[in-house]
Design goal:
- By secondary structure, the chain is α/β, with parallel strands linked by helices.
- It has one domain: Metallo-dependent phosphatases (Purple Acid Phosphatase, chain A, domain 2, 4-Layer Sandwich), CATH 3.60.21.10.
- Helix content is 14%, strand content 27%.
- It is built from three helices and 14 strands.
- The strands form three sheets. A six-stranded mixed sheet has the order 4-3-2-1-13-14, covered by helices on one side.
- Strand 11 and strand 12 form a beta hairpin.
């Protein structure tokens, strides 16, 4: 997206997704990976951390996994923005509605509205739709607003990218044409395990990939630089 006047405040956003905490069989390194993410974010002195879905592997994970997550969020200190994905849905039985979250660290912010909502700070807005059902009818980026004057807009979405709008039967689809029409400064994607840049028409859109790594390769996170002079740029940082 090209903006006539960029916001005055420079910011650095750390972006990750798909930690799948609470799954010792399919994702045995999830706790270690999240700890590495927090360590790297603190080292790089990022201003915000966005986790684009599937923080937890399922709705039945034990309280120990939730407790560990909240401890790490408290340790990172900066604001952490969470988007529920298809493994940790924001529905009636959502893990995020457990009593343990009543005493969440003050730096934790969770999207709760399936129709989309803004989580706002002084110089930046975050937008996302909390997934309440992983189905073909759920469109993760539909209804995204334009950025407010003088503020950056970083949006989060959890879903499957598809080049063309076709009746594939897949759930939570994100189409290339829809991305190209967005007005956000950066689209932080989750759902794919591999780090993938799917930017369209100058709209930066990136799957961070899971921080555990895939196929023996090291995990990574994405660092997004929002700069008043040079605009928006991202880089992959290995853990």
């Amino acid at each position: 997206m090209s903006r006539v006047c960029l916001p005055s405040q420079d910011l650095a956003i750390a972006h990750t997704s798909d930690t799948h905490l609470g799954d010792p069989y399919g994702h045995p390194e999830s706790k270690t990976a999240l700890r590495k993410v927090v360590d790297k974010v603190k080292l790089l002195r990022s201003d915000y951390l966005v986790i684009s879905g599937d923080v937890f592997d399922n709705q039945r994970v034990g309280e120990d996994a939730v407790g560990f997550f909240l401890e790490e969020i408290n340790r990172v200190e900066i604001p952490v923005i969470i988007l529920p994905g298809n493994h940790d849905l924001m529905n009636e039985t959502s893990i995020y509605k457990r009593p343990i979250f009543d005493d969440s660290p003050p730096n934790l912010f969770i999207f709760a509205n399936p129709n989309g909502q803004l989580i706002s700070f002084d110089h930046i807005d975050f937008w996302g739709k909390a997934m309440d059902e992983h189905s073909p009818s759920f469109r993760p980026i539909e209804g995204m607003p334009k950025p407010a004057s003088g503020k950056w807009l970083v949006s989060a979405a959890h879903g499957h990218f598809q080049q063309e709008d076709s009746n594939s039967g897949r759930s939570s689809l994100i189409f290339a044409e829809a991305i190209s029409s967005l007005k956000c400064d950066y689209l932080a994607l989750g759902h794919w395990d591999l780090h993938t840049d799917i930017s369209q028409n100058n709209v930066m859109a990136v799957y961070s990939g899971c921080p555990m790594g895939v196929g023996g390769k090291p995990g990574s996170i994405t660092i997004v630089e929002l700069n008043n002079r040079t605009g928006v740029a991202w880089r992959q940082v290995f853990l």
